[in-house]
Amino acid sequence: MNVDRKVLLPVGTAALALAAAGFAGAGLAGDGGEHAAVRAGAAPAAATSAVGPHKCGKTPSKNLHLSRTTILKRGKSWVTAKVPYSQTGTPYCNSYGRYRRDCSGFVSMAWGLHTSYWTGSLLGVSKKVSNVKKVAKGDALTHYPKSSARGHVALVVSKGEKGVYVYAEPHTGSYAQKQYWSWKYIKSNHYYGIRYKNVK
Q1: Which three-class secondary structure state does DSSP give residue 189?
Q2: DSSP-derived 3-state class of residue 124
């Protein structure tokens, strides 16, 4: 078990039933193996929340300008709902709009993007943080394209001397959750920080 990365939410043991309905998310091939590097020790969580009818807000027509506090509020909405991970299933929709239920779709929602980006295309709406230890709440951690896992991204919630707390959609069979990543884990898996260009 990877002791450097901790899942903070209780998890179930039943297998996640993935939705059969297809969803053509742009660039999914780039996200296909994005979670391999963090799979060790990750809980195979059974999502208890439904992806059915919710109060569905309108996805913004253009990328929003948001404060860091608002970004985290949006991210927490998926964590609270335990939105189950899926690259191909029915997108999740709440008051913030409709987005693909994987790591990059989650960050797209939190950042208020006009559509579900993929891990690589998020680099086009962000800038690299010069030092990973300088990330701030609302930034993201990614290892695209530096890892053989091809890409993963998570939203920074807070940081401390030994690591950071993140909101993440980890992998198939899990759901949106708060996790702790040590600086050692971040370095060994080639993560670096990115900052949304429209953050206030």
Answers
A1: coil
A2: helix
Q: Tokens 């300088």 map to which residue?
A: 134
In the chain, the amino acid numbered 29 is A
- The tokens of 49 are what? 């929340």
User: Please, are residues 19 and 90 in contact by the beta-carbon 8 Å criterion?
Assistant: yes
Residue 53 has pLDDT above 90, yes or no: no
- Tell whether the model's pLDDT for residue 58 goes beyond 80: yes
Tokens, residue 60? 């913004």
Instruction: Give pLDDT tens digits for 79-125.
Output: 999 999 999 999 999 999 999 999 999 999 999 999 999 999 999 99
Domain 5-11+23-47+62-196 grouped into CATH 3.30.1330.60: no
For 25, counting Cβ atoms within 10 Å of its Cβ (0-12 exposed, 13-18 middle, 19+ buried), the class is buried
- What DSSP element (H or E) covers 73? helix 68-81
Kindly list the domain boundaries of the chain, sorted by start residue: 5-11+23-47+62-196
Greatest extent of the chain over all pairs of C-alpha atoms, in Å: 43
Return the pLDDT at 60: 97
